[in-house]
Amino acid sequence: MTRQAVAAGVSALALLTAAPALAEIKIGASLAVTGPAAFLGDPEAKTLEMLVEELNANGGINGEEVELILYDDGADPNKARTFATRLIEEDEVVAVIGGSSTGATMAMAPLFADYEIPFISLAGAVVIIDPVQEFVFKTPHTDRMACEKIFADITSRGMTKVGLISGTDGFGASMREQCLDVAPASGVEIVADESYGGSDSDMTPQLTNIAATEGIEAVVNPGFGQGPAVVTRNYAQLGIDLPFYQSHGVASDEFIKLAGDAANGLRLPATPLLIPDQLAEDDPQRQPVQDYIAAYEAAHGEKPSTFGGYAYDAFHLLVNAIERAGSTDPVEIRDALEATEGHAGVTGVYSFTPEDHMGLDLSAFRILEIKDGGWTPVEE
Amino acid sequence: MMAGQRPTTSAAPADTGRHAYLQNKVTRRRAIGPGLRTFLIFAVLVGLGALIFPSSYFYRVGTLVWINTLAVTGIVVLLGYVGLVSLGHAGFFAIGAYATAILPNYGVPSPLAMLSGVLLAGLLALVVGRPILKLSGYYLAIATLGLGMLIWMVLSKEAWLTGGPDGMTVSGMNARNLFKMVGLNLKSAEAWYWVAGFTAAIGAAIAVNLAGSPSGRSLRAIHDSDVAARSLGIDVARAKSRAFVISALYAAVAGGLLALANGYITPETGGFMHSVEMVTMAVLGGATSVFGALVGALILTALPQVLTVFADYEHMLLGGIMVVTMIAMRRGLVPFIADLWTRRKS
Lengths: 380, 346
Prior knowledge:
- Chain A: Keywords: Amino-acid transport, Signal, Transport.
- The complex is a heterodimer.
- Chain A has helices spanning 2-21, 38-57, 77-89, 102-115, 143-156, 170-182, 204-212, 227-237, 253-259, 286-300, 306-325, 330-338, and strands spanning 24-31, 65-72, 95-98, 119-121, 136-138, 161-167, 189-196, 218-221, 244-246, 267-270, 343-344, 349-350, 366-371, 374-377.
- By secondary structure, chain A is α/β, with parallel strands linked by helices.
- Chain A has 2 domains: 23-142 and 287-363, Response regulator (Rossmann fold, 3-Layer(aba) Sandwich), CATH 3.40.50.2300; 143-276 and 365-377, Response regulator (Rossmann fold, 3-Layer(aba) Sandwich), CATH 3.40.50.
- In chain A, strands 2-1-3-4-5 form a 5-stranded parallel beta sheet, sandwiched between helices. Chain A has a 4-stranded parallel beta sheet with strand order 7-6-8-9, with helices on both faces.
- In chain A, helix 3 (77-89) runs parallel beside helix 4 and helix 8 (227-237) crosses helix 9.
- The longest helix of chain A is centred in the first third of the chain and has 20 residues, at 2-21.
- Chain B has a domain at 57-278.
- In chain B, helix 10 (188-212) packs antiparallel against helix 13.
- Classes of the chains: A alpha/beta, B mainly alpha.
- At the A-B interface, strand 2, helix 3, helix 4 and helix 6 of A face helix 4 and strand 2 of B.
């Protein structure tokens, strides 16, 4: 009896003393791992899991292990909000990464202000950071920037009259609107504006209309998924020889496979992730891009996507902020995060300010041209 | 209280005492009618939840359970009482939600905005339901499927009004302020829990009262046989249309509540999957009873939260549970358990 009591006491004591050594920094994530936005959430989740493992193997943050608590919200804003509440209240995380989609992000966002927890979104829309919310940051560039970058390239080639052919999906519709909005400021005139449904299999009529527009000099296709590949093939079939631009939405090797030879010669804005070996030696993004690709290929046996890159940057920005804060207090982490300057990630070089919670400028985008089924950076 | 006083005032003679007691019992049961009883049971459950919930997270899940219960109660009226399947109820849900989100931007106060959404949903159900419900068979399922998709498309395409596929922020009232007016300082998650729970309780009571009313009985007569009901002099098309409108109202109220509680909505609220989810909840819990709506909503809302522990198997487990329930208890959980209970008693 006594012996058992002593044994129990000893083991209880052992457990108690062992507990502080397992001190952990909890980081939460709510991503669309399954469902309609799984193409975003899946590489993001894989990236975060890989990075946490890697970080802990190297001794964690300031000697403390990191625990990732990841929920799958299926891009459902309703679920995302519930999971965010859960992460904050039940799991007591110090920061949250996530929201693969804009809807999920915006549903979660008000909670972080209430509880004063820093939040880094992986979704694209401008509304996330404009107006700036104190505790909300994001890593992907906006579609507005993609438009500006494309227009800058068009004007640098001495052209001004542009035709748009946009998808009616969320991505295409949002980018079309942003392009129309920034066109005057970029010195570009939109002379044609056509659209197509996401599952349409032939866009020849719209393209014929555009090509017949008087004075047109270049064509831009804001879109996502299959649509842009069809547009690209139709473009080549019709023999239109105006300069052709795609968006960052299709910046993947998959797109070249889908569009085939028709893609040769078109340009698009993309992250340096597509051209790891063509980056200059002194490019600040060369190192993170090559590290990420090597680590991801080793862990998952496939190439990382642009979207996984957003998660890579979010995680590193956060870890970096926690290290600099030297604390796991959420408000101090937020302050350190906002003070981030010149952090080179795979998407771009981040510098946050109280007025800018995305921290990227146009240099984050590289204009690439597809040549012989591969990517070539365009000299600026 | 009033009912309890009746026998004493009648001053019954001793030999009829037993009879008077019985009468008393009968009148008592009438005083607490089925509707009020349902309301009280729901109210107790809402209170019980609040007693055991340790954090806002639980209140949040609780709020969703009550909002879903409300929406599914509408499905119970349509599917359980009349036997009609709607695959577009998320559309009505979304009309309630988007009206609550959009109108405050034009200066309409939130409660009024929600009311307009509810009325609009009811009106749409009336206009669309009337011609369809004159036909028998599966026309309603197909027509509502189309209607739901149409509403979803409008919500996703009309970006100037609805924010498009990315959704829109719902500005406006917070339930906290309601409680502040009476001097209670609650967290917003708790406040919404009480509002949603209370609304669901009222909704359930109305649905139960409806079932016992003459028009509810005519609905159930239609459920068993259109022809028999018509031969009894029931205007079948009209009764069906009334049930359809009522269930649309339920969905719209639930939608408005969700919009306010979440502060953000996307067109997915009106998507096909959401319609299917509502019908699934009703069928799983038992479409003939409002308690079925509660149990179905509880299981399909709370279970995924529990199953996150088995993240990789979540969908498999959820699917498995539903398949087993449907094979073993075809009428849904609540009727099955009620049957077991009565069989045991006898």
